[in-house]
Design goal:
With 171 residues, this protein is mainly β. 12% of the residues lie in helices and 36% in strands. A hairpin with a 2-residue loop joins strand 9 and strand 10. The model is unreliable at 1-22 (pLDDT under 50).
């Protein structure tokens, strides 16, 4: 028995309840001035996003049929049909669409996705920057460095090169 009068096994059981309850993370709307919980949406402990039709109906969508949410520290774009894409965080929000493409981390690799949330080509880069004038810089064998005081992280090392919008290396 513990000093509080409860059996030690009961205290251990109570100690695990909060961990289980926190396994799923609530989704927060980014289409409103104040981040409000999006009822009917959660990110599971294994990173899957579950969004009920009632939650999709609550969101405001842009002209391309997209809305943005955040769950935990992960930003997502959602479409009205429930398709979603986890995207990298940029400027404290979801990555922008530059020249119609946004970036997502897939199995540890950066990939580029269109506004339908479909891949433009296979995700295969350790890092990639946004497209500008039809070209993006990417790198292999590079990694994030130490964040600066402002929270910005430089990508260091590796082989850097440029790609076109089909993912082909440029000379």
């Amino acid at each position: 028995r513990h000093a509080a009068g409860l059996p030690v096994a009961a205290l251990l059981s109570l100690a695990t309840v909060p961990a289980i309850a926190l396994a799923d993370e609530a989704c927060y709307r980014m289409d409103t001035d104040a981040f409000k919980i999006l009822e009917g949406c959660k990110r599971t402990g294994d990173g899957r996003l579950i969004v009920a039709e009632t939650a999709l109906a609550q969101l405001e969508y842009d002209a391309d049929g997209l809305s943005a949410i955040i769950a935990g520290k992960q930003h997502y774009y959602l479409r009205r049909d429930g398709r979603n894409l986890p995207v990298i965080t940029y400027d404290n929000g979801p990555d922008y669409f530059e020249e119609g493409l946004t970036r997502s981390m897939v199995d540890g690799r950066i990939g580029y996705y269109d506004r339908q949330l479909q891949p433009a080509f296979a995700a295969r880069f350790d890092w990639g920057w946004p497209f500008k004038d039809g070209i993006a810089e990417v790198c292999q064998d590079c990694a994030p460095g130490k964040p600066d005081p402002g929270g910005h992280t430089a990508i260091e090392g590796g082989k850097h090169y440029r790609i076109d919008r089909q993912g082909k290396a440029l000379p």
